Amino acid sequence: MADTGVLQSIAPALAAFSYFIAAMRLATFRRGARRYKPCVSLLASVLIGTLLCAGLEVVFLKPEVSLFQTVLAALFCVLTLRARGNVASLMRMSYDGTSETR
Prior knowledge:
InterPro entries: Phage_holin_3_7. It holds the Pfam family Phage_holin_3_7. The chain crosses the membrane at residues 6-27, 39-60, 66-83. Keywords: Membrane, Transmembrane, Transmembrane helix. It comes from Halomonas salipaludis. By secondary structure, the chain is an all-alpha fold. The chain has one domain (4-90). It is 67% helix and 0% strand. It has four helices and no strands. The protein is elongated, with a radius of gyration of 16 Å. It starts with a helix and ends in an 11-residue tail after the last helix.
């Protein structure tokens, strides 16, 4: 079993790193020929700000970060990277068979 002291020291660093990577990926999203949607753009801006503030909070204020918070941050980072920073694709909840697939 892993030492809890090691987990307590790695968890905040991994959470902060995940927040920063997800925020940077959202900020560097290239829209290309996709249609501009103001509400999605606003949501992306709020997500970027929130993720950067959360990462800075972990770095500078050093709150207690649980293992589950770290896993949640890493999961969101992976989903953001998988969606290539496209917030509209992150918002899609499930495939219902009515739209065409790529």
